[in-house]
Write a structure and sequence with these properties.
three-stranded antiparallel sheet; seven-stranded mixed sheet; alpha/beta; 12 helices; single chain; binds pyridoxal-5'-phosphate
Length: 364
C-alpha cells in the first residue's frame, strides 16, 4: 500500500534523540532554545516560541493577542478542528466565513460580511500548504482594527508574494505533528515579530510564570512546553525541510501533469504568487461517485483520504452556535468532492505513475 502520509526519519534523527537521552536533560532546555532560534531564522521572523502541539500554538497565539471571553474570531469552516477549537479554548465565539473554490482558503469577501463590533481577530488557515490571501486579509484587518493569526500548521516554508509563512500576520501557529511537512512527533511553534506577544507566549506555555522569575504567576498558563527530544528531531528536520518541500512540489507537479487531461478530475490550482508546499495534494471529483472512487483507488494499493469530510459548522459543538447545512455552500460542496492523494517526499517515480494510472482507472 502506498501510504497517504509518511514521515521521513533518518539515522540523523535517531542519533539526535539518543544524544538527548544520554544527556539526561529531557525537558525544555538547550535543544529547544536552538530549535527556536533556527526556526525563527527560517521564517525570517524575530521570535519563535516552541510548544508541544499545533493546537497549543494556536491557543497560545490567541491568548497573546488578547482574545478573551465574548470576543468574536472569524475563521474557515473547512479546516482541521483545532483551528476553531483554539478559539473556544479562550471562551471566544467562533464565527465562520466560507472558503474560495479554487484555493480551499477563506474568502476575504466572506470575512467582511461577518465583522461585528465584537470581532477581534481573523484566524486564516494556509490549507494543504498554500497560504491564504494575506494581501486582502491584512487590508480588511487594518480597516477594522482586527488582529490576524496565521494557522500555518500545514505550511512551513510556504510563501505568498515573496513573504514566508510565519512572517505575514500578527502571530502564527505551526504544527510539528508526525505527518506535517516538518515534524517531531508532536510539537508546535508560535512565531511573531512582536516581542511583547512573544513574552506572553513564553509565560503562557509555562504555567503563567515568566521564565526569569519562577513561582511568580502573572496569569493562568498551561504546560505547553516542548521536550528536548522533540526539538532534537525538529532541528534535524529543519535542516532538510527545503529538500522535503521541493520533493513534494515535484510530486505534485507530476501528479497534476498526469491528471490534467482527465475531465472527471479537478487538480489543485496553484496561485501564481504562491509557493505551495503541498502538505496535501487534493483533487475534486463528482460528489456522487467520490466514495466509490476512493474504494477503487484503495483496492489498487494506493492510499487516499478525505481532508475534511464534514465542515466544522456541521459538528455539534459548533452547530449549537446556530449553524446548519447550507450556511457555507462552498465548504460543504468541497467536503463532498475532495480526495487527498499521496504527495509526501518518500514516493518514488513508480509510485507517482501508479497513483496517476489508478486514479484514471477509478474515475472512469
Ligand atoms: C495539524 C493541524 C492543527 C493542529 O496541530 P496539532 O499539532 O495536531 O495539535 C491545526 N490546524 C491545522 C490546519 C492543522 O492541520
Amino acid at each position: 500500500m502506498i501510504p497517504v502520509v509518511k514521515p521521513t526519519i533518518t539515522e540523523e534523527d535517531k542519533k539526535a534523540v539518543l544524544e538527548v537521552l544520554d544527556s539526561g536533560m529531557l525537558a525544555q532546555g538547550k535543544e529547544v532554545a536552538e530549535f527556536e532560534k533556527r526556526f525563527a531564522e527560517y521564517c525570517g521572523c524575530r521570535n519563535a516560541v516552541a510548544v508541544n502541539s499545533g493546537t497549543a500554538a494556536l491557543h497560545t497565539a490567541l491568548y497573546a493577542i488578547g482574545i478573551r471571553e465574548g470576543d468574536e474570531v472569524i475563521t474557515s469552516p473547512f479546516t482541521f478542528v483545532a483551528s476553531a477549537n483554539a478559539i473556544l479554548m479562550q471562551n471566544a465565539k467562533v464565527v465562520f466565513a466560507d472558503i474560495k473554490k479554487d484555493s480551499f482558503n477563506i474568502d476575504p469577501k466572506e470575512i467582511e460580511k461577518k465583522i461585528t463590533d465584537k470581532t477581534k481577530a481573523i484566524v486564516a488557515v494556509d490549507l494543504f500548504g498554500q497560504m491564504a490571501d494575506y494581501d486582502a486579509i491584512l487590508n480588511i484587518a487594518q480597516k477594522h482594527g482586527l488582529k490576524v493569526v496565521e494557522d500555518a500548521a500545514q505550511a512551513v516554508g510556504a510563501e505568498i508574494s515573496g513573504s514566508r509563512a510565519g512572517n505575514v500576520a500578527d502571530i502564527a501557529g505551526f504544527s510539528l505533528y508526525a505527518t506535517k511537512n516538518l515534524m517531531c512527533g508532536e510539537g508546535g511553534v508560535v512565531t511573531t515579530n512582536n516581542d511583547e506577544y512573544a513574552e506572553l507566549c513564553r509565560r503562557f506555555r509555562h504555567h503563567g510564570q515568566s521564565e526569569k522569575t519562577r513561582y511568580q504567576y502573572y496569569d493562568i498558563g498551561y504546560n505547553y512546553r516542548m521536550t528536548n527530544i522533540a526539538a532534537a528531531i525538529g532541528l534535524v528536520q529543519l535542516g532538510k525541510i527545503d529538500e522535503y518541500n521541493e520533493k513534494r512540489q515535484k510530486n505534485a507537479e507530476a501528479l497534476s501533469k498526469g491528471l490534467a487531461d482527465i475531465p472527471e478530475v479537478v487538480v489543485p490550482a496553484a496561485s501564481p504568487e504562491a509557493k505551495h508546499v503541498f502538505h496535501q495534494y487534493t483533487i475534486l471529483v463528482d460528489p456522487e461517485k467520490r466514495d466509490e472512487i476512493m474504494n477503487k483507488i484503495k483496492e489498487q494499493g494506493c492510499g487516499c483520504a478525505v481532508f475534511y469530510p464534514k465542515p466544522l459548522h456541521l459538528h455539534p459543538h459548533f452547530g449549537n452556535m446556530g449553524y446548519s447545512e447550507g450556511d457555507f455552500p462552498v465548504s460543504e460542496e468541497t467536503a463532498k468532492r475532495c480526495i487527498s492523494l499521496p504527495v509526501h517526499p518518500r514516493l518514488s517515480e513508480e509510485d507517482i505513475s501508479k497513483i496517476i494510472e489508478t486514479v484514471k482507472e477509478a474515475v472512469k
